[in-house]
Amino acid sequence: MSRAEPLHPALRAALEQTPGVIFDIQRFSLHDGPGLRTNVFFKGCSLRCDWCCNPESQRPTPEVAVFVANCFGCGDCLDVCPQEALRLEEGKVVRDESRCDHCGQCMPVCAAGALRLIGRVVTAGEVLQEALRDAPFYSQVMGGLTLTGGEPTGQPEFALALLRLAKAEHLHTTLETCGQAAWEVLAALLPYLDLVLYDIKHMDTQRHLQATGVGNELILENARRLVEAGAQVILRVPLIPGFNTDEEHLHQLADFASRLGIGEVHLLPYHTLGRAKYQALGRGYCMAEIPPMKEGEAEAMADVMRAHGLYVKIGG
Amino acid sequence: MATEVETRTDLETMVRPRAGTTERIRRMREALLATMPEVCVERARYVTEAYRAHEADPPVLRRAKALAHVLDNMSIYIGEGELIVGNQASKPRAAPIFPEYSVDWIEAEMDEFATRPADQFLVSPEVKRELLEDILPYWRGRTLFDRAMATLPDWVRQAQEIGVISGRGNITSGDGHIIVNYRKLMEKGLLGVRQEAEEALQRLNPYHAAEQKKRPFLEGVLITIDAAIRFAARYAAEAERQAAQESDPQRRAELQRIAETCRWVPAHAPRTWYEAIQSAWFVHLITQIESNGHSFSMGRLDQYTYPFYQADIAAGRLTEEEMLEVLQCLWLKLFSVNKIRPWAHTRFGIGYPTYQNVTIGGQTPDGQDATNELSYAVLRTIQETRLTQPNVSARYHLRTPERFLMECARTIRLGFGMPAMKNDEIIIPALLEKGVKPEDAYDYAIVGCVEAAVPGKWGYRNTGMSFLNLLKVLELAYNDGRDPNTGVCLHPGRGNLLTFRSFDELYDAFLDQLRFYTRAHVVMDTTADLALEELVPDAFCSALVDDCIARGLTIKEGGSVYDVVSGLQSGLANVANALMALKKLVFEDKELTSQQVMEALATNFAGVEGERIRQRLLSAPKYGNDLDEVDGLATRVLSDYLEDIKAYRTTRYGRGPIGCTYAGSTSNISANVPLGQPVCATPDGRKAGEPIAEGVSPVHGTDTRGPTAVMHSVAKLPTIKMIAQLLNLRLSPGSLRTDEGLQRLVQLLRGFQVLKGWHVQFNTVSTETLLAAQKNPEQYRDLVVRVAGYSALFVTLDKATQDDIINRTMHQP
Known about the structure:
The complex is a heterodimer.
Chain A: H1 9-17, E1 19-29, E2 37-42, E3 63-66, H2 76-80, E4 86-89, E5 92-95, E6 115-118, E7 120-123, H3 124-133, H4 135-138, E8 144-148, H5 156-168, E9 172-177, H6 183-189, E10 195-199, H7 205-212, H8 217-228, E11 233-239, H9 247-260, E12 264-269, H10 275-280, H11 297-306, E13 311-314
Chain B: E1 2-4, H1 11-15, H2 23-33, E2 39-40, H3 42-53, H4 59-73, E3 95-96, H5 104-109, H6 125-139, H7 144-151, H8 154-161, E4 165-166, H9 168-173, E5 176-178, H10 182-203, H11 209-212, H12 215-245, H13 249-264, H14 273-290, E6 294-296, H15 301-304, H16 306-315, H17 320-336, H18 343-346, E7 357-361, H19 373-385, E8 391-396, H20 402-412, E9 420-423, H21 424-433, H22 438-441, E10 445-447, E11 451-453, E12 467-469, H23 470-477, H24 503-535, H25 539-543, H26 548-551, E13 562-566, E14 568-570, H27 572-588, H28 594-602, H29 607-619, H30 628-645, E15 658-665, H31 672-676, H32 707-715, E16 722-724, E17 728-732, H33 739-755, E18 759-764, H34 767-775, H35 799-811
Parallel strand pairs in B: 1-17, 2-3, 5-6, 7-8, 8-9, 12-14, 13-15, 15-16, 17-18
Antiparallel strand pairs in B: 4-12, 9-18, 10-11
């Protein structure tokens, strides 16, 4: 059980002032922890997964995204861009990715909302206030605050401040993490966490390295230590066809979970909802060939893992 | 606003029979759904005959005799397999004609009834001939509508013509919107009510003019009650006739039971639950034959019939399955009722609505939880019959059992928008605030869609005499009081957008226009009320509303215990958004000049320049996102209106009822579409003629922060001063398939309760809607998706992802 401590006013003030970079606060989130939740999406991630549905989360700093469909070709942005990175083609804005330095000066003049700055600096106090708005909705099924991203452990002071403030308000707290963090960071957050949604992408470190940019040793080790330290952990696995969905691998995952004593697994079927975001960010989407999963496929995979005595849910 | 809930509401669920539905119900339901509505001439024929025969009678007596003549002569039938009997017109789903209310439209539109864009009715050549030759000529120039138009002040008529107010419904169709005293019916039967009327008659002072004026009403009560009892006896005779010919012993027994029942109720207090349902149905039906108007509601069916159910179960006379079948028979009967309205009125509420409401759950008059087996049975009946009528409202309070809310959620998931959820925690205080006694406030029920009233004690129409188009008022305010469409100026303004030097000047000009048109809509109400009182008094309905008999007054004369009404304020969200955009962009940040805005509005945002300005206007904060500044403007507008309307009284003032005041109501069904038509482009970024927002719901596509934010915005409004409030949330298919998902819906409802919202109704998104969304994504920016770990923030901006979401939504199980 997490710690709900009364905060000394000076400490509270310090915690509230802790800055962080986020790209979204999403209310009425239904799948990232129990009940109705407010999700805080941290900006910056230690992995680079090919299938990432929140590519805007990866860079740690704010960046400009271009939603071409919204542009009606007024051309106001062309005049203010100090890098001359913008031009009009067939009445729509086009960005020269090599020139744009994401200064964001184009954004305020864009009436159409075609140019948007993703990511903003906030304080933990501001985020808490937003999260508390929906407190009336949290009470029934332990709804609350979820830190996700991006990778919340990439901003450890901010994450810690938020969690301590949230616990002082008796909110239920959840951390969604890829686990690629120094153990000390996780250990510091743990007393203020009610639930950890712990992502494991692949049990084979080479495959993990190829798809995400890092090996899985630290991730698997941290999972073990979290469980040992008494954290309530749910294993989350993105189901990526052709990568981690073969039966043998599912057995390995299930085996890992049950040996650790993790009882619950969430399988998150691959989807293409992130695709257009890549376009807006001027990046390529390397999953273009893979169609979204068919109904029933995920169910069969869940059954493989259920055979190990795990409680397996599809979606969160 | 969209959240994730399973839908599959479309054809599949409409057609697919459900486990638990009996073969009888299945057959009757299919036949009913396959019936094309038509026009039935019988009521019009007999009413006209009776009016002709009793020219010398005072109106109330003449109408009582007309009702009796209809009930004695109209075709009656007992359909195959029916357990509950009583028909409104000669065929199921056929609509009777009420010529005493208005006839012009019947003549003008008759040829298009079968082909108009929505709510079509077949008219046979014989019916057409009879109407045109025998019936309509008698009524020309002497209907309710003719009277109202003759007495309506010219400036009010003009206000209606330019689209600021609209009160057509009441003068072409009359009142409706009532729950009679079913509890009293259960306690003493119609003969008990008749006894009261006789005693009241005997008490009348023979030489006191004011008292003698009450005589026709009380005599009318006797006439209509006797006619109602004879009407039931006709069904008894028909059941006996069919029983004599019936070879199936089971059906014969049913018919014999029907005969026995119709000989006993509604005359006497019921002896069993089955008789209680049959009695309530007869009375509900007769009130809808007596007068036009819609939203006749059955009140708290699960409460006033519950003692009979308990007794039957205890005595072993009834099983739960039998109860369910009878309840479903009643549902089919309620669905068989139909109304035909002029096209101009039809547009304000599409889909053959009759707004017959049944209220379940809630609290007892002494504040205990009232949820019982019948409350659950009603939910199961919705699940199994899957019909668009009756409307079901579920009251919930802090101690409402979770199981009941979960069952409500399960029912909501089917996509019929039912039950609509009503929050006791604000509605009861709102009624107390209006002077309602605590035991009555706890006993409230819903009339029509969202209006709260005390059953059997409230007058007609606690909401909705006339619409006030707030957005049109704003448009007049920044055009110096002159309608840009017609050039009509009824109330000179205080300048225009170009001359206002500050937001306060704009707002003052708005308030000035608002006060003027508030007055116009009250005058409209008064004119309609006086015409209704004089020309179409209803003895039968009044007999069943306290204290009409004791006072010797019909409802319209001030017979009811309570009488609080409201106008219908429409377009609140648009006004808040428009004021916000002007305040921020023109007066504060000076990003736009008033000149630019006025030109853009005049040209309906034409060209790149127009679009640039529209986009700027759209970028201002919008109501429905839990943003205090713009939500505060909505609150301010509504509060200022309510402050103003406080000064007005209804025509019943000083004649007996508690209240006789005006309250607020934002229940405006589909009126948001026609009300948008006469309004040019507006500073909220809305283009000319587009619909305005419905109820207190945000403008479509402008609420991008999810339903909890919408609920917060709504909860900031002065809800306690309302008498009705309407919030529609759109749900899209997805993750509420599981019980865990349903729990989240329940959690949403509990949160709404804590925030003290009045009413919330969930409309699930159908495949058709989603296809429309693909064509026109801007209107569906609120169609948010929630997927684990996924930030949906930017999907609101991007067509491709919107398409992905729609595909996903459509194909998800």
